[in-house]
Amino acid sequence: MKSYARAIAASAVMALCASGAWAADVPKGDTTKGKQLFLTKGCSYCHGTVGQGGGGRTGGLRIANMGLGFPAFINQLRHPVNEMPPYVASALPDSDVADIFAYVGSLPPPPDVKSIPILNN
Predict the structure, then answer these.
(1) Would you state the pLDDT for residue 11?
(2) How confident is the model at residue 37 (pLDDT cuts 50, 70, 90)?
(3) What is the C-alpha R_g of the chain?
(4) Mind listing the pLDDT tens digit for each residue in 45-77?
């Protein structure tokens, strides 16, 4: 039940962020440092080296171009839903989270399905 309640809370935060109802200052992040942290802190194991998802034990989510606001992003890191381990502030300070957020936000969108020849046969 506790996991269900956290999932509902996370969904509410994401909905507020997506609607613009919860406007927060997004900290400036360093994309170069964010990429290094993304690769060394274990994010890439599940989410792929460019946020494409599909890795890890349970096939991590694609996080590139999700349109997730910073408050929801940091909430998911600190209080994850499902299989993701928590990244507490003592292990990953908010400044590092801002760098990872900047890197994830800089990733290009996935290619259009129509541009992948094998999927069009």
Answers:
(1) 47
(2) very high
(3) 15
(4) 999 988 888 887 777 888 888 888 999 999 999
Query: Of 25, 55, 49, whose CA–CA distance to 37 is shortest?
Result: 49
Residue 59 exposed, middle or buried by CB count within 10 Å (0-12, 13-18, 19+): exposed
Question: Residues 66, 82, 43, CA angle at the centre, nearest 5°?
Answer: 55
CA distance 4 to 81: 9
Helix (H) or strand (E) holding 104: helix 94-106
Q: How far is CA 34 from CA 16, 49, 82, 103, in A?
A: 25, 12, 24, 5
* Eight-state DSSP code of residue 106: H
Question: Is-contact 53 63, C-beta < 8 A?
Answer: yes
Q: Per residue in 25-34, pLDDT tens?
A: 677 899 999 9
SS3 of the chain: helix, strand, coil, percent, to 5: 50, 0, 50
Mean pLDDT on 95-110: 92
Q: Which two tokens stand for residue 26?
A: 């997004």
